[in-house]
Specification:
One of its GO terms (biological process) is peroxisome fission. The longest helix is centred in the middle third of the chain and has 49 residues. The protein has a two-stranded antiparallel sheet. The protein has a domain of about 150 residues. It contains 11 helices and 2 strands. It has about 290 residues and is mostly helical. Helix content is about 65%, strand content about 0%. Helix 7 crosses helix 8, helix 8 packs antiparallel against helix 9 and helix 9 runs antiparallel to helix 10.
């Protein structure tokens, strides 16, 4: 095998010796290779290329990025992993505290829940937000009082007549409204009563006896008794309203035929029905009072 020797770098490039970059680019390893010679394969058709040594020397130094950090920054950085974790926890707590500032606490800070005191509303606000039947009854009561004061001689006769006329019309209108409400309530109760009766009939067809009556059947029987009682008193209320309507119709429309007899009978019947309703409503209280 033939060998090719390379000339010394100082002889080939005399001008480059003055350059300060000759040292890093041409190391001692290249000089050793030049002195020993380069072995070439004689069977290779291509001429050998000039060997190029790596720019990086063998004794390269790996620099840490921390050399670019100033001493002040190095002092500020945490040196322990626990300090970094503490900083992260503090930042999380600060964010949670900032988010929680806009949320009202469920309980007050002192631990005692204070109920809000009901604010008193003006009388005009109550009148404006009342239902029409309530306002109608209020006007009826006021006009009736004015008519009564006129009959007692406290007010003029003309004022009393107008107030009495207004009271009769308010009474007539409120009676019609009460009759409509009574009909709606009774229809709802009748529908509920039919549903309970259908359930009881279905239970009776399953073969349940008196000794094996299930709990649901007993509940349905109690509910049916309650609905029947409500329907009974709704019918009493409707009869009382019809009597009131007959009584006030003679005054509103100024009917004269059978006026005294009809008004007397209607008044007595309405009073008796009202007394029965009042007695049933306060029966338990009366029984306790009579017992003790």
């Amino acid at each position: 095998m033939s060998s090719i020797s390379f000339p010394n770098s100082s002889q080939s490039h005399p001008s480059s010796s003055n350059s300060p970059l000759d040292g890093p680019f041409y190391s001692s390893s290249f000089e050793a290779m030049s002195s020993n010679g380069f072995q070439m394969n004689p069977h290779s058709p291509h001429p050998p290329r000039t060997p190029r040594t790596s720019v990086m020397s063998s004794n390269n130094t790996v620099y840490n990025p921390e050399i670019f950090t100033s001493e002040a920054e190095m002092e500020e950085r945490p040196t322990d992993l626990e300090e970094e974790v503490d900083v992260d926890i503090d930042s999380v707590k600060a964010n949670a505290r900032a988010r929680g500032q806009g949320i009202a606490p469920i309980y007050p800070a002192d631990g005692t829940s204070k109920s809000k005191e009901p604010t008193s509303r003006p009388l005009l606000h109550t009148f404006l937000h009342a239902s029409p039947p309530v306002l109608l009854e209020l006007v009826n009561a006021f006009a009736d009082d004015v008519s009564t004061f006129s009959r007692l001689g406290l007010l003029g006769k003309r004022t009393g007549d107008r107030a009495g006329r207004l009271a009769d019309w308010c009474w007539f209108a409120s009676t019609l409204v009460d009759l409509v409400e009574n009909g709606v309530e009774r229809s709802i109760i009748l529908n509920s009563q039919r549903e309970v009766e259908s359930r009881l009939f279905a239970d009776s067809m399953t073969g349940a006896t008196a000794k094996s009556t299930p709990r649901n059947t007993r509940i349905d029987e109690t509910e049916l008794h309650r609905l029947q009682r409500q329907d009974y008193w709704l019918q009493i209320t409707r009869a009382k309203l019809v009597m009131d309507l007959a009584f006030v119709s003679y005054d509103v429309f100024k009917l004269q035929r059978g006026k005294s007899a009809v008004k007397t009978f209607a008044g007595l019947a309405s009073a008796a029905l009202s007394s029965a309703k009042l007695y049933d409503r306060h029966r338990n209280v009366l029984v306790k009072a009579l017992t003790f």
